[in-house]
Hints:
Elements: E1 4-8, H1 33-44, E2 48-53, H2 58-76, E3 79-84, H3 106-112, E4 121-125, E5 128-129, H4 132-142, E6 149-155, E7 166-174, E8 177-190, E9 193-196, E10 199-201, E11 206-214, H5 223-238, H6 251-260, E12 266-270, E13 276-277, H7 283-296
Parallel strand pairs: 1-2, 1-4, 2-3, 6-12
Antiparallel strand pairs: 4-11, 5-13, 6-11, 7-8, 7-11, 8-9, 9-10
Helix pairs in contact: 1-4, 3-5
Amino acid sequence: MKTALLIMAAGIGSRFGGGIKQLEPVGAHDEIIMDYSIHDAIAAGFNKIIFVIRRDIEKDFYDRIGKRVEALCKGLGVEVAYAFQDMQDIPEGFEVPEGRSKPWGTGQAVLAAKKALTEPFAVINADDYYGKEAFVKIHDYLCSPQQAYCMAGFILKNTLSENGGVTRGICKVQNGMLTDVVETSDIVKTADGAAVNGAAVDADSFVSMNMWGFPAEEGQAPAYVKLLEEGFVDFFKNTVPANPMKAEYLLPIHIGNLLREGRVQVAVLKTGDKWFGVTYKEDKALVVESFKKLIADGVYPENLYSDLK
C-alpha cells in the first residue's frame, strides 16, 4: 500500500540563532536529523517522501540532502516529491498583511503539498527525532481499515529541552482517543518535572510532537486536506485580523478545534521513545552525543542507510 511521509522543513528556526537548523549535521557521517526520520520511515514501510521547503533554501536543501535521498530512494523504490511553502499562498479573497514576513505555520505547510497527497500520509517536523516505534505504529495504523486520524503520543518528560522552553500540544486522552489538544508555549524542564510560567505541569501527560497520521483511500486525496482548506479560510477571517504579523495556522490548534466540534476522531498511539531535537543552539551537542549512543547501542548502523534493502 502506498503511504507518504510529509516532512515540514520550511522553518528557519529563529531560536536556533539563525541559519537553517534542519540542515545542521548531527550524525557520524554528517547526517542531519531528517536522515534518521527518513531511515525509520522507510524501514517502517513508508514508500513516498514529500519535502515541504521554501524556494529560497531549495538549492541548499537539494545539495545537503535532496540529491542524496533521491539516489537512495530510487534504489529502494521510494518516491520523492517536493512542495514549496509560500507566504503569498493564501485563500482567494484575502491579502497578505503589509509587513508580514513569515509563512503561516504547519497547517499551511501541509496545504502546500496537497497536489502530491494521493494516499494515506503522516506528517513530521524536520528538526525532531521521533524514534523508530512511532513510525512503525503510524504506518501500520494507516495500512489498516481506519477512518479516525492518529497521533504519536509522546510523554511530556521525554520531550523537554535542557536549554529553554519548548512548545508542545498538551493532550487529553480518554480510552485511547484524543479528546483535546492545547498548544502550550514555554514549557520548561524542572527538578520535579515540568512547568509553564512557574506552574507545574504533569510531566507524564501525552503531548503532540506534530507527528500525525491521516487515512485515505489509495489514489484519492485524504479527507483531512479539505478540512484543512476550510479551516484556512476561517483562520484568515477570524484570527489574522487580530494578529496580522504573527498569527500561525497550526495543526494542533486546527485538529483541536475539529475535535471540540465533534467532526473528527484521533487515535493516540503511545510511544515511549525519547524525543530530541535542535530547538536551541546549545541543544546540538546533546543531539550529537545522543546519536553516538544510539549507534553504539546498535539501534542504527554507523553507515545509516546500509541496513535498508
